[in-house]
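I'd like us to work through together how a protein chain folds, taking it slowly. We need material for that, and I hope you will provide a protein of your own picking. Go ahead whenever you are ready, and we will take it from there:
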Amino acid sequence: MNKFHLFAMLLLCPATVNAIQVERLRSLGGRPLAGDGIEVVVGEVLVRFDPAVNRSSRETALAAIGAGIIRELSEGTHVLLPAGMAVSDGLTRLAAVPGVLAVQPNHVYHVSKVPNDPLFWSQYQFEKINSPQAWDDEDGATAKVTIAVLDSGIEGSHPELSGKMVGVSQFCNPGDSKLIGGDNTACGAEPSGGAVAACNHGTRVAGVATAGTNNNFGVSGVSWGAQLISLRVFRTQDCTSSCGDGTGQICATDDTAIISAIDYARTVLAVAPGVFGRVVVNTSLGESIACSGLLDTAITNAVAAGVVFIASAGNDGGAVDAPGNCTDAFPVGATDSLDQLASFSSRGAEMTARGVVAPGVKLLTTTIGGGVTSASDLATGTSFSAPIVAGLSALLLSENAALTPLQVRTHIRNGADSIGLAATSQGAGRVNACKAIKLAQGVPVGACSNGSALAGFVVADPVVAFPNPFRANESSGVTIKLPVSFHGKSPAVTVHTMEGQPVRTLQPFTTTAFWDGKNTNGTFVASGVYIIMVKAGSDIRRFKLAFIH
């Protein structure tokens, strides 16, 4: 029998009127812009005049077309267009003004969304995978997703993880070959009734994927909103707290336990979307063997049932380990803070065909005892690059719950950034969360930068509502300001629960929609956070609205 070893929301607040008014520019210099264009400030442009043209002459030239100077910049002139003039028209008109050397729109930028967790800034992986820009679009709270951590067990009382636990955590016993008939036939509820950790490994994995985030405490996870369930496949008596071998015991598991856990995810979790939503299984364990037939079949059956199956590639620098080398597994290798492949990261044909890499060297994450990994004991291994991809998979499924496991893998691989290595080493590249989310949305990835987590970038049309929170005892309803790009398109405006269930279809007017807090039956909905979706064709905008009744 094979033995497997461990590889070591912005807060809601009342909306205010935006100081910047925006419009979408779809062409520039007579050439169409990619995708849905860019956002620019309404009625303003930036102009660079010939230095020989003095202030008085500039004012005269601009007045001839009804424009005026807002302010002088050292690099150019900030110009106000005539009332009602589109920016595209203003650019054309100003380009022909005598003395003008160049014109450009006044682009719109904003700071990427970052959580308020104090240790976020010590977690380099988020900047490397561009997750702050991904979180602007999706933080994991739009639709329900559960990450099943098939591992050594999660410390269910951990303050960063306890609020994420859902369902009944399971112990899938690797069995004892000395027992006739065995005790390894299936999974069962944890003996204590809650999640149990045989050692620190599973708790560290869980924190990387989805530690409590934006809770002004501790560390952050890739998916802010994903739920957790523990599928423990290691005996507590077999492992020390640091996942070494116990006295006279081997900290290891086997095919039967892993297969039972995968089957539990397929037959129990995946068939209860109301409780678990979509399911992602993370397996940060493995062995340098070929994928066994029964294990391969179990993974294939789970993926066919809609389960996304993530596996660490391995830590021996050789061929990809099982189960990462199984037919439908999504293997993940490890990189460091310099985007270099970790020397221990396994590689091979499976990485070329199906794999990616992600940060997996010296990660700050949760650990047993209710704390985080220390500076001298940071989490290292493909064990910890895999849950980055599990968390990213959860983000994609929250953004679009209809994605198949193959589509999730394809979007993540197509959005990955090359680190300049052969595909056998890096797979499709180091994951880029922003690009993967854009691909899941079916929109261009050009708005995703590869720089700092706070790098500015052009943003999509915002949806704005007032008041937010909406209190039924203080207001008759909430007014939803539709994005400029939706004006005149008769968009569909719908209200959904956080789980994605439809609540009400609203009647859009020219530039706004209105919701009175009631469902289709005319009764008030329960207090909570709701998703407002505005859709016209393939163009979709979402935002969260708090309702208090």
Observations:
- The chain is about 20% helix and 25% strand.
- The CA atoms of residues 113 and 132 lie 5 Å apart.
